[in-house]
Each structure stands twice: as structure tokens, then as C-alpha cells.
Amino acid sequence: MTAEWTERVLDQARAAKAASRTLAMLDEDSKNRALLAMAEALWERRADILEANRLDMADAERNGESAARLDRLRLDERRIADMMEGVRQVASLPDPVGETLESFSRPNGLRIERVRVPLGVIAVIYEARPNVTVDSAALALKTGNAVVLRGGKEALRSNRHLVLALREGLRNTSVPEDAVQFVDRTERDTVDVLIQATGLVDLAIPRGGAGLIQRVKENAHVPVIETGVGNCHVYVDASADLGMAEAIVINAKTQRPSVCNAMETLLIHERIAAQWLPVIARALWERGVEIRGCERTLAHLREAGVAAPQGLLAAATEEDWATEYLALILAVKVVGGVDDAIAHINRYGSQHSECIVAEDGEAAERFLSAVDAAAVYHNASTRFTDGFEFGFGAEIGISTQKLHARGPMGLRELTSYKYVVRGNGQVRR
Amino acid sequence: MTAEWTERVLDQARAAKAASRTLAMLDEDSKNRALLAMAEALWERRADILEANRLDMADAERNGESAARLDRLRLDERRIADMMEGVRQVASLPDPVGETLESFSRPNGLRIERVRVPLGVIAVIYEARPNVTVDSAALALKTGNAVVLRGGKEALRSNRHLVLALREGLRNTSVPEDAVQFVDRTERDTVDVLIQATGLVDLAIPRGGAGLIQRVKENAHVPVIETGVGNCHVYVDASADLGMAEAIVINAKTQRPSVCNAMETLLIHERIAAQWLPVIARALWERGVEIRGCERTLAHLREAGVAAPQGLLAAATEEDWATEYLALILAVKVVGGVDDAIAHINRYGSQHSECIVAEDGEAAERFLSAVDAAAVYHNASTRFTDGFEFGFGAEIGISTQKLHARGPMGLRELTSYKYVVRGNGQVRR
Lengths: 429, 429
What we know:
2 copies of one chain form a homodimer. Helices cover 44% and strands 21% of the residues of chain A.
């Protein structure tokens, strides 16, 4: 990347910082009016956006992108209407900014309040889905933050026109247009400039695959929130209601296998393995799930004489325990009990979502307390780890780190706080 | 550093991680008993510790370290007793772990609780003061975290013997000794190994000068909390009670100039500058403070005919506005009013502690709301930004970033949370 472009990205971060100062002082109504104007502008500009998307799609097809990627990239009027609706929903949520989180007085008479404030400037680094552009901008503005968007190459034209529309929408509102910045280049260096812009960018959020997240984490100098890698487990205890266990396992693996809160490894208590493994294996195979089993799993299936459909049974390797398949593949392991399950999960899990199916309350509480993850479940599918399912009304990602935010991140998680201290001349002795 | 040492530091992080699993499950009493045992062991081992410190001091003297640095390094029985007392105080504080932060139900019957949990493993990277060793270990253990300590070269022997004592103290308690790890090498690479140990270290806290913090921030792959750089301002409005303003300015600058919450720049409203500048300048000079003034400051002092003592008056350069002197030097600037002051602070400040002295309530509220800092003060000294002054009973540092924790960090800020979700077979549709 040329030095000129480095400077240009920094200028955008500076403009975002300046805009964030104005934005931080706006009341809820002003921000909501700006959000509704952005939604309107998306619809008014839909012809330009769809034309830009058509060109992106044509390139992607020429480059032989997969059907799944093409689907993620594709826009139509319906999807633009969905984006508008998403922005309107964000506008309708309560504004967390300004909330007094606590307030106390000190013996010297100082009155101290802890007040929720915006973070400032959020850099969002993402991949192919153009709806992330609109979604991130709406969530950032609602919480009084400016945003610098850096999307993927495939969606460059679509994103450019989405942002043109969003900024046009802001033109006659009290939110400065500069609150939404779009980095109109896709060289990797543009990411580095952004995530190393100490003093300008207050938070970087990578939204995408493990490779993107890793790169951002390793190169950032600004704070990062790690999202979305989910190597999730379901542990079925000897005490489990096996009907419930089957429903949860099937749901967690097959309802939407490509997402981070889908299950990747099934752990089964050894006391029920011989009996239940053939049952659950057949149910999984019926749905096209490939099983990668530990030695005991394979032995039990062999002994039960169940025949796996072609290609749907293999021996698990060490690597399988650590893999997020995001596909109809499931690692299966027989464990000695709840402590064994906890140890396995704490070793291989990505601290996302972990479930125990058990009727034994003591085992369940032990699991919930000892498993180190953003969300721990007793008798429910891991698929519920989601800002909407948790009732937050919005979600910018699911944090798998422990600093600042853990699990589904809604509006609240896009804010910080400050201490406001009022005195009458106090000095320190 | 040899590959052997890299592996050794990683092994320590792994041992800390394993210990953190046990520690996270302990109740408050068990942790408190371990803390008290650590305090006892410090006293029992005081001869070894003081002998080690004597050797560190001898080296430091030979190397011509400054009196201030020698004082920071020096231990004696009194200081060991103070450390013990500090550990005991930490033991007496309420344990934040296990607190239910919120709890709600979803229409599908899921019951969701957000529960405070330890972070896991905290790496503390620090410089010369050996009391940071004891302090960090106590705060980490109290909050159920394991700690990996990496102190400065000057204090290597002192720190080694402090940690030997702490671990000895843990020997007959339910806290595993491995919860306190000491990196017994001071090559820079040992820091890099620690702060890049993704999956083992959950948080790195650099405690020291700006150089150390910068290096950690730029090289870390794990989350970092930036602490302690304070370019703090006091703005004296035209409406200020000037007696109060003088008391606050003198306190904020001179009561302890070497700390991060001391004032570094004084901003004065232009309407009172001609009258008040000579007054405050004389008061500062009497206390040996050098003034680096903007052009208008210098002109006002010249016109008033006040003579500066030798070496205590100079013209401020651009660099002065951005400098944290940590010494008896004060940059002084005349500004057009509260908006001008806000703009200056948001441009040059380090988002630590900022104060307005004003009787005009509207100006004060504007300042408190628009200034972007961890702590904003109306009519009180910036020196109060401190975990003890805020009543937290402990402090591991003062965060100047916006993620996770802002301002003084007490016990609560050394924790994370997890979502505990209880169901009766819910699956996602």
C-alpha cells in the first residue's frame, strides 16, 4: 500500500474520532432520527446498491466462488428491505448511553458516579457479507460510537454503495456523516493501519473466520474483541434423559451447522455409551452427519453391529478434538464422567458454548461451575448463544475472550464508562 | 533467550492455567486462609528476603541508580510488615467472584444468569518495585486468578525470594502453589513469550513507565489493560472560586508530582488570566514548580511585572502539551473558554483524570460530559483517581483504555463473567 493510502486511512480514523466527539453528546432521539434516515436512504439508493452488487456477484462467479459464498454476497430488494428493518429495530432499542451504573459518596464529601459512555471509534474488519456493513454502522451509531468499516474484497462495490447511502442518510441529521467511514481499499495493510491506530481507534472487532481473527489479534496495538470461534461440546451424562439428549444433540449439530454456536464434539458418559451410541449414531447418520469417533466409540458401534452409511464414520485423531468443523461432521468421545468431560472441554474448547445433558443436579452444577466458557448450558441446545435469543435485541458478535465482554455482545457491550466526580474544593492530604 | 527458556516460561503459564482451574472453584474462606498464610510466610522468610534485597541494592548502587530508584527497590522489616498488612487487607475485602450480575428468563423457559467468574491467568509485567510482586499475587488470588509475575532486573533476587515465601505460604492451603509463578529471567523475550501465550494467559497488565506499556501493547497477542500514563489537566473557568482553584492546582501539581494522577497542564480562562496568572505563578514558584507557558501566559506575566525565579519560567513548545512530566514542571495555557479547554484536553490528554474548577454549573456539566477521560472532576483535585480514594480497598492500576475497565481497577476489575443457562430440553427452531 502506498504511503498516501496509509495517510488516507489515518485521516478517516481522525475524522471518525472528531465525529465521535459530537456523537457522544447526542441524545437518544437525535441518534434514532439519524438511524431512521439511514434506513430510508438505503431504500432510496437501492438501484445503485443492487447494480454495484451485480458487478461484485459477476466477479465472484467468474472467480469460481462457492454457492455458499455467492449467497452470502448476493443482495436483492428483499435483503435491502431486511437491512432497513434491521436498522429500524436497532433504533427502537433502548439507548444504554448515559445510564448511571453506580453512584456513591466518600467520607470527604466527593460524590462519584459511574456513567455509561460510548467507546469512541470502533473499527470493524469483516469479510464477504455486505449486511455486516449496515448492521455494524447501525449498532455503533446507536451507542454513540463512530465506525470505520473495512470489508472484504468480494463485496467492495456493494459496501461502497451501502456506505454512500448511509452517509447520504445522515446528511440532514445531527449525526455527522464522518461517523461512518469506509476504507475503500482491500489490501491487508489497510487493516494493519487501522488496528495499530492507537489514540484514534478505541476498539477493533474482527467479524469473520479464524484466520482473520488471528491476524487481527496478532497485529493489533489497539484493544480487540475476539469473536466467533466456537468449538462447542455437548456432554451427555449417565443420568441424562436420553430423549432430551437426542433432541439437543441433533439440534446443536444439524439445525445450522455453519455457525459458531453449533456443536462440534459430543462427549458420552461411559455407562450409557454401549446402549445409546447406536441410537444417536443412527439419528445423526439419517441427517447426513459424519461421525469421527474415539476408539471406544468405534468399538461400541462395531459391537452393536450397526453399519455406518458410506463415508459417515471415521476414527478421530487428536486434531479432531480441536477442530471447529462448521459442517455436518461430529467428533464423538466416550468419557469417564463429568470430571473427564470438564477436563476435555477446558483443554480443547474455545470457551464459547458448552452443554451438559443430565438429570443429576449435582453433576450439572459441577459442570456449569467448572467449565470455562462464555455460556454454559444445562439441558438446552448450545445454539441459543446469540444476542437475539438472549433478548438483547441486537448482536455485534459473540466474544470468546474474557476481557470486557463475554458471549453475545449487544448494545451495552459497545459502551464503556467514565467516573464523574463532583466536589467542593477537595484536595488530597 | 534459549528455546529451553521459552518452553520453561510456557510451562509456567500452563501450570498457572491448571492451578487457575482449582482456584476458580474455591470459596472465599479458602482463598482468605491462603492469603493469610502467604502474609505469615513473608514474615517468617524476612531474613532471606532482606538478604536478597541487600544484594539487589548493592548492584543497583554500583550501577549508579538514582536515589529515587534505590528507594523504590529497598526493603526493610518495616516494608515487609507493610506488605503483610497489605495482603491481610486484601483478604478482608469482600470476594466479588460468584456474584450474580443479572438474571432473567426467556419466553421459551430458559433461565439465564450472568455470574462473575475469575479471568483465569493474569500476567503482570513490572519494573523495579518489589512490593508489586506481593500486591499483584494477593489481588489475583483473592479474585480466583493465577498470576505469572515478571518483574524488573534490579529486583530479581528480591522478587525471587518474595515469591519463594508466597509459594511456601500456600503449601498447606487449598490454593495450589502453582497459582503464583515467577519468571526468573529478565530478558525482554520472556515478556514476549508471556504476552503472546494465547489460550494460556487471559490478561496482561503492564505496571510501569510509558515505554514498558507501549512495548507490551505492540507485541501482545493476549488482551492487555493499559495503565497509568496520565497527562492530566486542570481547567480554571472564569467563574471559578480562585481560592479553591489555587488549592486544587497546588495540590494536583505538588502533593506528589511523580504519580500518574498529578496535573501536567493548567488551562486558564482568558477572562481571568491577566489577574490570576501572577497569583498562581508565585504560588507555584514558591513550591519550586517550573512553568512552561504559552505566549499569552508569558505576556501576562511580563505585563504584570512578576519576575520568575531562575530557571522556573520557559516558553512552552508543542511537545509540552503532550508531555507527562512526573516532576515539578507545569505547562500553562490561556484558553478561550470551556469549549477550548475541552478541545485541548481531548487532543492532548491521555484520558486519565481531568478537572474543571468553576462555579458556573452549566460549564461544569459541559466539561464533565464532553471530556473523554476515565475520571472527570468538578471542583476537586485530580489526585483522587485511585482505588483506595474511590473506596475500592485495593488497586492493581488505573486503566486509561476504554475496554473492560476504566480508571482505578480494584478486585471487581480482575474478574469476567459467564452466562449460566438452565433449561429443560429447549432446542432452537
